[in-house]
Amino acid sequence: MANPAFSTNPAFNGKGVPTVPTPTAEQLQQHFELPSAPDPAAAAPMTIDGTVRVSLGTFAVLLVGAAIGWLTMAAVPLLWAGAALVGFVLAMINIFKKEPSPALILAYAGVQGVFLGGISSFYEVMFPGIVTQAVLATFCVVAVTLVLFASGKVRASAKATKIFLIIMCGYLLFSLVNVGLMLFGVNDDPWGLRGSVMVGPFPLGVILGVLAVLLGAYSLVMDFDFIQKGAQNRIPKKYEWTGAFGVMVTIIWLYLEILRLIAIARR
Predict the structure, then answer these.
(1) Angle of helix 102-126 versus helix 240-266 axis, rounded to 10
(2) Closest by alpha carbon to 251, among 150, 87, 105, 141?
(3) Hey, where are the domains in the chain?
(4) Which of 43, 67, 182, 254 is exposed most, by the fewest CB atoms within 10 A?
(5) Would you tell me how many other CB atoms lie within 10 Å of the CB of residue 265?
(6) Which helix (H) or strand (E) covers residue 18, if one does?
(7) What is the pLDDT of residues 139-194, one digit of tens each?
(8) What are phi and psi of 123, to 5 degrees?
(9) What pTM does this model have?
């Protein structure tokens, strides 16, 4: 139905030329106050299937980057180190950004893939077959966590999340201290305190590695919980990228921890 403020029925002036009446200020105000047509894309809710599709896309970009990092490791050995730094910066930007940015998340996936491919090639030279072991172990942890979550046997809770955050802060503090000791020459072991300190028959790195895998598994539960609740509450579709980013970050961390755990155990 046409807006009466802008009627297409013309009036005629004295020369027989049709004219359109000029709208008044009140008519203009009424026109601009009319609700605009809803944007179908903005109104679409987040879904689990949509998050899965977005996740598959980001992991495809990650794998392409990993192939580049693996193949260029010998020719450009420091490429993966630079990718690690850029990936960390992009991760911080994506984490603290108020709304998800598909371009930045895909950029993170590609750069982090280069880092993973390079460091995996480095470990493979020292410990042949370790990458296959780490990939299979990571897949098993993710699969088991997903099955337990889907069956309702494992759920994120406020108390468990609080404990997770406390342990995680302690783990990050230890990691920073360990890196500092290695950089300043206090500990010359390739893995620092993880390799030089023994807990019974096991290196400290093995114990911490198992702890890190458990932390990673619970972090996955939190990611799955966000995706499930986001779909149930029908939050905007753009947050599918947030869910995909969270899962990707956790799986990357899991893989790196398992890679290091196996390396320390095999040494």
Answers:
(1) 10
(2) 141
(3) 45-266
(4) 43
(5) 13
(6) strand 18-19
(7) 999 999 999 999 999 999 999 999 999 999 999 999 999 999 998 988 888 889 99
(8) -65, -35
(9) 0.82
